[in-house]
Amino acid sequence: MQQENAVHKEERVTFTLAGALAGARKCVPVAISGCATGLVFGTLAGQAGLGVGEAALMSAFVFSGAAQFLVLGLWASPLPLAAIVLTTLIVGLRHLLMGAALGPVFSRLPRLKAYGSVYFMADENWALTMGEFDKGRRDGAFLLGGGLLDVFAWTTSTFVGGAFGGAVEDPARWGLDFAFTAIFLALIASMWKGKTNILPWTVAAAVSVAAHHWLPGQWYILLGGLAGSFAGVVRRGP
Amino acid sequence: MGLDPLTLLAIVLMALATYATRAGGLWLANRFELSERAGAWLDAIPGAILVSLVAPTVLTSGLAEALAAVAVVVVALRSGSLPLAMVTGVVAVVLLRAVVAGLA
After folding, report:
1. Do A216 and A147 share a structural domain?
2. Domain limits at B90?
3. How many domains, in total, are found in chain A?
4. Residue A178 has what DSSP assignment?
5. Does residue A132 sit in the same domain as residue A50?
6. A160, A225: one domain
7. pTM as predicted
8. Separation between Cα atoms, residue A199 and residue A149, nearest integer Å
9. Minimal Cα distance from A185: which residue of B?
10. Are residues A63 and A163 both part of a single domain?
11. What are A170-223's pLDDT values in tens digits?
């Protein structure tokens, strides 16, 4: 499956321990704010009727905050399995787009490393990884390192939240709900290349705000991402 | 800490569903020879997704969030430091929310 890519053809792609460690280090602030969210998830999961162990298992294996919070709303006896799986799939649709963006670099890794690493792909470590690739540092293990730290933080904080439920106050009181927004904003600032970004980013912002207003759930991320990235290509002409 | 079999099944199915979406995009990108246009499209995805993730919070939550976002971008551009930008955002949003609530 060795194939030439039109983009980034010339740069070397590596997969090193140093890359994984760099990814983990860059993810420390993300993991810390992720812990606050994990505590809340663990608490709410307990209230929804999940055992502490079950909630922690879900965090370890599903590793998707958005999907996990949403299915808690569906949790009932008997479990509506079809609705739970469908919700998870729909929330995960944005991962398709994110995984595709990894393609030009990840297609040149051995298959096991590439497909093993994407198991640990979440919004945050994916965004940090794209920032690294953007700067020309193409180490595929960066995603894995950040993801491993993230999943560890997410799972342990879920467990703690479930075991000591109620101990967590509203994260918004401490501004922690804004932590991820701040990280994403800083990454956007670092990706700014000039005027070429204006149109796609304006389109993305407009579509996501509209979709957030009129559609339920997480559609705004996928729709904004699709509209913005297409606007970026159309602009270049045929 | 009992484990209910049906709950475990739900967790396994959810794990399979998320992994399918995580691996699916990469699989599709690997499947096709990428034209220059497709490459340009993939290059445009990260910025567009990140903007979509934050736009509703930044633009529609209120004055405190919008101003805190400006502070984050200024600090990020000046310092290039992600942790510093994050701390700035968290502190700024707490202070600004207090100010906005005080004015209201």
Report:
1. no
2. 47-103
3. 2
4. G
5. yes
6. no
7. 0.81
8. 35
9. B73
10. yes
11. 667 777 778 889 988 998 998 898 999 999 999 999 999 999 999 987 789 889
User: Phi and psi (nearest 5°) for A51?
Assistant: -70, 160
* Contact criterion met (CB < 8 Å) for A61 and B10: no
- DSSP conformational letter for A118: G
The answer to whether A174 faces chain B, any CB pair under 8 Å, is yes
Q: Which residues of A touch B60 (CB under 8 A)?
A: 209, 212-213
Give A138-160 pLDDT, tens digit per residue. 999 999 999 999 999 999 999 99
pLDDT tens for residues B3-52?
Answer: 789 999 999 999 999 999 999 999 998 887 778 888 888 889 989 999 99
Residues of chain A with C-beta less than 8 angstroms from the C-beta of B28: 96, 99-100, 103
Same domain, yes or no, for A121 and A26?
Answer: yes
Q: Is A200 on the interface with B (CB under 8 A)?
A: yes
Burial per residue of A113-150, b for 16 or more beta-carbon CB atoms within 10 angstroms, e otherwise: ebbebbbbbbbbbbbbbbbbbeeeebbbbbbbbbbbbb
Residue B78 falls inside a structural domain: yes
Q: Is the pLDDT of residue A1 over 60?
A: no
| pLDDT at residue A235 in the model | 59
Work out the pLDDT band at B2, boundaries 50, 70, 90. Answer: low
Q: Which of A229, A234, A235 to mutate to test the interface with B (most CBs of B within 10 A)?
A: A229
Q: Residues B55-82: pLDDT tens digits?
A: 999 999 999 999 999 999 999 999 988 8
| Alpha carbons B70 and B76: distance in angstroms, whole number | 10
SS3 content of chain B, % helix, strand, coil (to 5): 90, 0, 10
Which one is predicted more confidently, A234 or A157? A157
**Looking at the domain assignment, is residue B16 inside a domain?**
no
| Residue A11 placed within a domain | no
